[in-house]
Each structure stands twice: as C-alpha cells, then as structure tokens.
Amino acid sequence: MIRRLHALLPDPGLLLRLGALQAVLAVLQGLLLGLLVPVLHALLRPEPDFGAATPWLLLGCAGVLGHGVLTVIATPVGFAASMELGARLRHRIVRHVATLPLGWFTAGHRARLARAVTSDAGAIGQLAVTIGAPAITATLVPATVLVVTLAVDWRTALLFLAVVPFAWLTLRRAGRVASAADIELERAAAGIAGRAVEFGQAQPVLRAAGQGSTGTVRMRAALEEHREVYRRGLRRSLLPDLSYTAVVMGGFVAVLLVGAHRVTSGSLAVAEAVALLVLAVRFLEPLGTLIELIGALRAMDNAVGRVRSVLGTPALPAPRAPVTTVARADVEFSGVTFSYGAPGAEPALRDVSFRCPPGSTTALVGPSGSGKTTVTRLIARFFDADAGTVRVGGLDVRDYDHDALLQDIAIVFQDVYLFDDTIEENVRIAHPDATREQFLAAARAARLDEVADRLPEGWLTRVGEGGARLSGGERQRVSIARAFLKRSRIVLIDEAASALDPENERAVGDAIAALAGDPERTVVVIAHAPATLAAADRVVALDGGRVVETGDPAGLRRAGGYFARLYEQYREARDWHLPARTPRQ
After folding, report:
1. Quick one: which of 11, 18, 279, 12 has its CA closest to 134?
2. Partner of 231 at 20 to 30 A CA spacing, among 154, 167, 237, 581?
C-alpha cells in the first residue's frame, strides 16, 4: 500500500518528510522507555543510588522535551500536509482527465470522477496523515522497544518476538475482511447517493403519487441494503478482530507469568522485572491499536485504488507534430470500423465510408443503434477508430492537436447541458469575447430571442441546474445559438429536433436550416424528423453499423429503397412533408 500511495501522490516528498518526522518521534519514544531500565535499577535498590540515576533522568527530561517540541511541530504540519496533499491530488486528477477521450465521460465514469475528486482525494490526504502517523507509531515503537529489551534481557525479547507472527497473521486476516466490507459499504453508499439525487429530482412525481415523504421503492431498498451491508461487515469483522485482541492480550499474560516465575526463582531482579513489565506494556499496547487502524488503512487503500483507476485511463494519443489548423471543412470516412468496450465486442460501425464536401449538409438516418451518434463522436474524436480513417480537411483527425480540431467543430448535443447561470452566459461560453452584436445575431439565428423576450429577466434569466427552468426545445435553441456564435466551419447536430413540441420543432428546424445555409459551413445532422431532413442536401442511411444508402433526399425517395421507407415512417409519425431540394454541387 505504501508503494501505491507513493506512486499516486504528485509530491510524495512531502509525505516522506512527514513520515520521517513521525518515525523519529516513534523511535525517540521507544528509547525514552529504555531509560527506565537504568533509572529503576538505580532507584529500586535497598539503598537507592540517586547519583547513578541522575544522568539518566536528565537525559530522559531532555528527550521528553525534544519529543514535545517535535510533536508541537508535527501536529500543525500534519494537518497542513493533509490539505495540501488532497489539493495536489485533485489537481493531478483534473489535469489527467482533461487529456482523456471525450467518449470516456459516460454517466458511470462521471460518477467515478466526482467520487475521486470530492471524496477519495480528500480522504487519501487526510488518512495518509491522520492514520499514517499512528500506524508508524504503532509499528516503530514496538520495534524500538524490542531492540531495547534485547539489550536488557534476551529471553523476554524472544517472548515479545514470538507474539509478532501470530499478531501479523490475525491482523492480515482482519485487514482483508475490513477491505471487503469497505468495498461493499462504498457500493451501497453510492447506491443511496444515486437514489437520493433521484428522490430530490422526482419530488413533483413522488408527491403526485403520495410518496413525497417516503421516497421510491428503490430508495427504500437502497437504505435497507446499506444497513444490511453494515451489519454484515460488523459480523464478519467480529471474529478476526477478537482473535487479534486475544493474541495481543495472550502475549501480555505470557510475559507477566514468565516474569513472575523468574522473579520468584531469583533469576530476575525486581528492578529489571518492573522495567521489563513496563516495556511489555509499551510493546503490546501500540500493537493493540493496529486493529483500530486497519479498517481506516484499508479504506484508504481502496480509495487509492479508485483514484488509480481514473489516473490509469490512457490519455488520448497525441501526435509528435500536431497540426493546429483545419485547412478546409470537409469530412470523410474511409473504411471505418469501431466498437465500444473491449476488443472483440460487437462493432458499432463496420467498414463505413462516405464523404461530406465543404459547405454540404448531410443527414444521418437510421434506426436506433445504427451508429449515427458514433459517426459524430468519431468526427470530433471522442474516440479513435479501430480500423480505417476519419479525415477532416483531408487529414486524419489523429494528426491534429485535439483542442485545435475542436475549435473548428461545434456540437449540438441531443441532451443539452446548461450551467446554472444566465441564458446569455450559457451562449457566450462558445465565444466569451464576442461582441454584443455578434451575440444577438447568433441568438436571433437560433430563434433564442423569442425565448428571452417572454421571460421576465430576458437574457439575464438564470436557467437553473442543467437548464431545468427551460424546456427541451429551449435548451436546444441555446445549444444552436452556441454553434452560431462559435462560427465553426463544421457543425455536428445530434437529433436536435427529436421529441419536441411542434413550435420548438419548427424553430429548431429553421435554426438548423440557417446553419446549413452558410456555404462555408459543413453540417452533419442526425435526423429523426422531416423538419430536420428538410435542411439536408444529402443523406447517409445507416443500418446495423453499415452504410446502406447515400445520395440526395429527393432521389433516394424516388428510388423507393431503405431511406424512402424510413422517410414514410417519419412522415406518418410527424405528419410533415419533406420538400425536394436540389443537391449542391
């Protein structure tokens, strides 16, 4: 665990210096206990020899004073180091996560990241100091006492040493049980956290159902599971913990019995016996505290493992000489195959090839799971293709500096996330330095001005966490306004008009048409609605991860093939008509 912690921390030197200070304190404590031997030997005579005891007492006073000074120094330094280590570890996690493929940020991974940054990093910093220091003391004090005892009476030292392997075996068993219990309890706590968030978000639904105070069945089940896991952990830990305590107590009883026998037999003087008894207490007492620390140490080890799993995620590969400028706005797939997850998984795309010329608007159509979203993710290099090449501006996307590539790509996500800020600031995130005129022009093009006009505070209206105060269609308009304001030459739109009311669907469709109307802009839009298809001048139809048809919408409809059937399904569902368009040359 020490090696894993050392490799994890961004500045292990700070922890090593603090550990060295704690080690000095522990060894000094053990040596001070050793001074009892000559002091008691001088004072427990029939005629006490204060002159012989005085130098040892003075040395002991100096040692106690030094120990106190070092303790005063170590305590505030330790707490400061705890906060500093936690902060540095958080910075390291954030810096690493910023290099990961965007496709890594799934719901599960986002939860792991939040846990690593908020809880695990702080716990590691705190436990490394507040638990690490007592653990060092509980280890080095007995080791120092053992060396001192060996110099005084080797027989008692051997008795001390005989306790160690039994204590180590039982402590190791207790540690394994504590580690498993901590992992189970962590999972149960994560389940409660998820259900608690759900409980807060679903209050209107729960109150309408008369369950506003009791919560959902899943929340009650999560609470009961947490209680059961905690009880199960206590039951499993009971025997190992008692076994370790029995070994330590058994060692003390053995030392007491053997010492009493040797005193009564005359082979051990009373002064040495008293000193050895004190040494026995200070040898076994710190060992006894290890059972109280082992649970926290294992919890820290588990936290280290969770953070290492985040830091161990491979970063997005960067070229040695990255290209920093996108020369033109065309997109091309050439024999692209890609699968999520482990190698050998079912491919999401199979040998996909098509081209989107500069200034074109391409609609990706197909049933759910056909690979449409995967296409847009590969263009923005959320992932790298398993085989084949994705090109932007004639170059492999892997040849670009990723930040430079994304500067020329705007993405309108299906699920738009808005920050708990004003509408204006949520748009300006795409171009913070834009002028007022540029902002208003982008808002009008996205028809977002209609939304602001009917709100009491207009552009200064706060949207709430995640944009909760706006409807889905209004959030889509904010996202499209970002695309206009960013003025990127490539725009990827992921089902922006799906599941919207007619008013918002028309507004979003008009905004997409406005985006597509710029001859310098290439648009790739996932289309599930005729209003979205109306803005396209070419279609790529996907099914099962393969391209089954490509061409202009009107021609494909007349051909009566795969796209024509899909279009009829869309038309019947929305009762919209797709006007024929002449494809751009």
Report:
1. 18
2. 167
